[in-house]
Amino acid sequence: MLALLHTSPVHVPVFDALAERDHAGLALRHLVREDLLAGARAAGPEAVAHEVGAVLAGAVAEGATAVLCTCSTLGAVAERAAPALGVPVLRIDRPMARIAASAGRVVVVAAVESTVGPTAALIREEARGRNLALRTVLAEGAWELFEAGDRDGYLDAVAATADAVTGADVIVLAQVSMADAAERVTNGVPVLAGPRTGLATAVAVMTAARSRTG
């Protein structure tokens, strides 16, 4: 079983649909903790690191053989819990960051400030010393639309921010909730979003770990 840690319930049907389309028979366990993102936004991801670890430990105790954190803000603290848990713990945006890091000029678009630092740090980590020109842009007002339940308004605001980007080889949509905005961007710059590649990577890692343990 793959457990997914979300910080919004809107992500549950997104990953259920991806699993049904790309990974028939995959058992998912959704853990929705909006309070963890709220805490991280207020005091930084480290402030909720212990609680994240406890949530993941609970999932493993209930049978999860791998965990995927779908929140970019919490991804780093989730990954660090892996040694104590004894199962793979992955962050949704690492595969996307690896692809972005191979580009020369990267612009990260985020809707919440707490996501900017972790996403930028991850892309720099994946660049491994290669030349990288990295900029970040906040989609002003977008998150308020998301919180109000205005999905179309939110996606339009994200797409408008991405459309205003110039001088980039690739645009990274930092949050899972942004993924569908990629289809609304019209400026011709390639746009990367995390859900599909992140889930596929988690499934591959979980399958490999299971085969090693018999």
| Overall pLDDT metric | 95
Q: Give the biggest beta sheet.
A: 4 strands, parallel
* SSE run: EHEHHEHHEHEHEHHEEH
**N- to C-terminal distance:** 15 Å
Low-confidence stretches: none
Number of helical regions:
10
Describe this structure in words.
This protein is an alpha/beta fold and 214 residues long. Strand 5, helix 7 and strand 6 form a beta-alpha-beta unit. The longest helix has 19 residues.
Q: Which key terms come to mind for this protein?
A:
alpha/beta, four-stranded parallel beta sheet, 10 helices
Short description:
The chain has a 4-stranded parallel beta sheet with strand order 2-1-3-4, sandwiched between helices. It has a 4-stranded parallel beta sheet with strand order 6-5-7-8, with helices on both faces. Helices cover 49% and strands 16% of the residues.
SSE layout and pairings?
Layout: E1 2-6, H1 11-22, E2 28-32, H2 34-43, H3 49-61, E3 66-69, H4 75-79, H5 82-85, E4 89-91, H6 94-100, E5 105-110, H7 113-127, E6 133-138, H8 142-147, H9 151-163, E7 170-173, E8 191-192, H10 195-213
Parallel strand pairs: 1-2, 1-3, 3-4, 5-6, 5-7, 7-8
Helix pairs in contact: 1-10, 6-7
